[in-house]
Amino acid sequence: MSDRGGDRLAVRKTYKLFIGGAFPRSESGRTFPVRAPDGALLAHVAAASRKDARDAVRAARGAQGAWAGRTAYNRGQILYRIAEVLEGRAAQLADELAAVGVDAGAARADVEAAVDAAVWWAGFADKLDQLVGAVNPVAGPFLNLSTPIPVGVCALACPDGGGVAGVLGLVLPAIMAGNSAVAVAGGPAALVTSTLGEVVATSDVPGGVVNLLTGDGGALLPWLADHEDVDLIELSGAPDGMHADLEERAAGNLKRVARTGGAETVGTAAAFCEIRTVWHPARI
Amino acid sequence: MITLDRDGRGPVLDLGAGRSLRVAAVDGYALEQRAARLVARSIKRESKAAGLELAVRCIDLTTLEGMDTPGKVRALCARALRPDPDDPTVPPVAAVCVYPALVAVAAEAVAGTGVHVASVAGAFPSGQSHLDDRLDEIRQAVADGADEIDIVLNRGALLAGRLQDVFDEVAASKEACGPAHLKTILETGELGSYEMTRLASMIAMAAGSDVIKTSTGKLPVSATPATALCMAEAIRDHADATGREVGLKLAGGIRTSKQALGYLALVSETLGTAWLHPDRFRIGASSLLNDILLQLRFRRTGRYARTTDLPVD
Amino acid sequence: MTTTPKRDAATDLAQQFAEYVPSLEARDIVAIRPSYGLVIDGEERPAEGGATFPTIEPATGAHLADVAEASPADVDAAVAAARRAYEGTWRDMPGRRRAKLIFRLARLLQDRTRELAVLESIDGGKPIRESRDIDVPLSAAHLFYHAGWADKLEYAVPGMTARPLGVVGQIIPWNFPLLMAAWKIAPALACGNTVVLKPAETTPLTALLLAELIDEAGFPPGVVNVVTGAGATGAALAGHPGLDKVAFTGSTGVGRSIRRQLAGTGRRLTLELGGKGAHVVFDDAALDQAVEGIVDGIFFNQGHVCCAGSRLLAQEGIADELLERLRRRIELLRVGEPLDKNTDVGAINSAAQLERIRVFVDEAAADGCRIDQPSRPLPERGFFFPPTIVSGLGGAERIAREEVFGPVLAVQTFRTEAEAVAKANATRYGLSAGVWTEKGSRILWISQRLQAGVVWANTFNKFDPASPFGGVRESGHGREGGRQGLQEYLHTTPVAA
């Protein structure tokens, strides 16, 4: 309690971005203030720029192939590791939510829901092929297999007010299926979003698989929707007035548009997959 | 020493002395599909008339029964020379094909006509006899007047991997034939795969066969479109590699004009029209001839003919 | 027997045989009417204001019939009819009853196979062998397969309750007019949706015959409506606010504009768009069969196939030999009269498409690429283009990157598996890919890395209603066929909810 004499001064955390496994400030040097309901300044959180979004997509692209190449079992274990680390950080995350005005009980419930989601999706990874894929009985001497494959790089518009579960609700199914993710969350969720980077970074998730951008979604999402190297955009948390514009931009490279709301269903898993069908003759 | 090697492109038959033949892989399903499409060519009018006559000219009219007699063989030869007694424009077939003991009878019956006498020999149809006996049988058949000898490949040796034995036996048979042409029967129904058919084709050709032939006709599975295509492709590739052009004989199960026309299309589109010639292509058959005659009669008269009007052996 | 045969009677016969005199499928099995109307609410009717457009026979350029050109008001009427049918009968009809109607339709297609095949070849230019052996039987198979789903939708997605979406607008291309119609309507109807279908303007006739069969099968009026017309009709349908879903098969450009049109509407959309499929052939491949796969891959339906294997990637060890075999093989392809049963490559669908293909090949020639085409002459009238192999490519040429949608194969080489994957994936598309090798582990390794919705290993251009078909990247999204394709026509909610 003391700084070697007198009251101890707490060390404040710098809330930064999480890109490619590192914690950079925004390349723009910009931050935005996150305040308590009473107006007290909690932190200057890094405000991601379009160039940060570009860097995050580059990191996500670089990491995606190897991540998809991991076995489903291994991805499941890493997701479970996220649940474990998250559980250990539950109090911190709940405090960060409470600090921005979330009711303490609701904050705790939000974090617990996120932990439970991580467990749910961890156990889904090695069920995915069986639930979404198929061996198809085609009318000929063929082995015909349909298997889910990741879409690639997913941009995730997380709800600003969604808390931990709001962010992880989209990140978890995306990476469960072998995609890499660039998640955008701003507003009150910014503190926990930034802290989630620390959770992910200590959960054996390879750098670049999960990238977390705090800042103004309204400014960042159009860049991501336009980005030719983004394969899917999840709009569950996009501001209401932006959906039409973002979808129109998504048409540029025909990226997939999803709105799963992070529901823990097979439908959400399927939304983060493509189906690839392989034919091979079964005759000598 | 003959060995089957493998390089980045697949199996290669090393024939020794610096000679080698690429065997190449075969994908069964795609082969069957291609063959099915080739034999489904729609052959009409002038093409059909030409094809039917060509088919007659390429037939090895065959009798290979335990109950064959000189009388039966003489009747067969009569049909071979003049397939349709009512229509002298129908040409003679390419050859008659008989057991060795009846070669002399056949040779006498067709002497001077241009119709060849083919004899199965070499412990047909199994080949499971001593090599010396098999070679003696060939020599005797040639001495009796056969100018074409149909032997069976040693499938047992092939399947056991004794490629040298397979090769040497064919080469010895070729030598025993003297001036007669050697047709080597692969008996593809016993080879188990198209890959093995392809390998057998290459060995048989490398060892000097003038013709490679699908089947003895003594198995339930004889010539099929895919087998014919597999062998035709082997002949083409062997010719590309060596410059030597080997003939193809299909035998067993070819009973209808439609089948025969289909096989002509298959051979024509795989090997070229140069192979649509009795010197390069044969169909071993017995009942096929009468089906073609019915078709030719229909073309001539515009009416369907009575089947019993055609001669029997 | 080893000497070259003398020229004799047999050689003459061989020539005569190998010509294959034309074996024409009789046209008189179809009665093409001078004019056709729209099919709305079970009734044939002219377009508003009586607008029509001609449909022509690509093999001859001859005028076949005048077809009603639907205006936006006609599209309104069709969507309204579909909505009435949806709410009035189809949505609530027991699945077992819907199934029976779709089964009936499948049977009617089989009953009329020959007629449908001939009409398809006349109106579209494709060889009768293909329309007879592939398009029509596969259309019936799609109806059969999906009919059986109609009363089993609770099993379509595990843990989810399924219900229909509503009214679906379906816009289909000219390359497989009947087959695409069947692909589209079968899952839609099985799931309880009603349909407004727009066939392509150059090939409307089989879809209109299909509408007659739907009526004959006893479907309630308005369950399937057909609005014929060109791009404007398609745009009016795609953007219609009365729809719950749009399904489009066609070019990437049009697909993109439909995607834009639907932005923010919340309507469901599936797109099946263009492709530039890579056909990867390794040194150890079964070469003769690979040649057939390549030929089928690019010359099937004159190359008017979105999933065509239009890029050949040959491993360097066999590239020369493979090319030589291909050149020899295309010499055998018979280009000409679609109704000749021996025709391998039919007519290019339209004069405009023919011109587009010409420009691609002329450009490649100007770029210094080697162009190989068979020596046989083409028919003198009608729209024809010879099977073409373009080799000596660097990879940056337009013909190596863009979809030609014609009988033109672009050839490149590679050395290693990784290089093959990199080259195969160097495209904005991702519909199909092929791989030929005898090594099983290589097939699995490479098929896991090819950016394609469908991978054909040691085969190509195989289709089946049970097998999901569709692309990744700019080849579109959504699947057709299989359980995955079915889901595109269902709204699902968790069972617990």
Please characterize this protein's 3D structure.
The complex is a heterotrimer of chains A (284), B (313) and C (497). Chain A is built from ten helices and ten strands. Chain A has 284 residues and is of the alpha/beta class. In chain A, strand 6 (180-185), helix 7 and strand 7 form a beta-alpha-beta unit. Chain B has 313 residues and is an alpha/beta fold. In chain B, the strands form two sheets. In chain B, strands 4-5-6-7-8-9-10-11 form an eight-stranded parallel β-barrel, surrounded by eight helices. In chain B, strands 1-2-3 form a three-stranded antiparallel β-sheet. In chain B, strand 8 (181-185), helix 8 and strand 9 (211-213) form a beta-alpha-beta unit. In chain B, helix 1 crosses helix 9. The termini of chain B are far apart. The model of chain B has no long low-confidence stretch (mean pLDDT 96). Chain C contains 16 helices and 19 strands. In chain C, helix 3 packs antiparallel against helix 5, helix 3 (95-111) crosses helix 7 (205-217) and helix 5 (128-147) runs parallel beside helix 6 (177-190). Chain C is globular, with a radius of gyration of 23 Å. Chain C is α/β, with parallel strands linked by helices and 497 residues long. Chain B binds chain C through residues 8-10, 24-27, 29-31, 33-34, 41-47, 49-51, 53-54, 57-58, 91, 181, 210-211, 233, 244-247, 264-265, 268-269, 273-274, 276-280, and chain C through 1-5, 9-11, 13-23, 283-290, 292-293, 317-318, 332, 341-342, 436, 438, 458-459. Strand 10 of chain A pairs parallel with strand 18 (454-457) of chain C, so a sheet runs across the interface.
Throw out a few tags for this protein.
heterotrimer; A: 284 residues; alpha/beta; five-stranded parallel sheet; 10 helices; B: 313 residues; eight-stranded parallel β-barrel; three-stranded antiparallel sheet; 11 strands; 17% strand; globular
Shape of chain C: globular
Tell me how many strands of chain C there are: 19
Biggest interface: chains and residue counts?
A-C, 39 and 48 residues
Structural class of chain C: alpha/beta
Strand order of the largest sheet of chain A: 7-6-5-8-9
Q: Mean of residue pLDDT of chain C?
A: 96
Q: What is the end-to-end distance of chain A? A: 79 Å
Strand residue percentage of chain A: 15-25%
Biggest beta sheet attributes of chain C: 7 strands, mixed
Count of alpha and pi helical runs of chain C: 16
The shape of chain A, in one word, is: globular
Helix content of chain A: 40-55%
Q: How many helices of chain A?
A: 10
Multimeric status of the protein: heterotrimer
Secondary-structure content class of chain A = alpha/beta
Widest β-sheet, arrangement of strands of chain C: 14-15-16-13-12-17-18
- As a percent range, the share of helical residues of chain C equals 25-40%
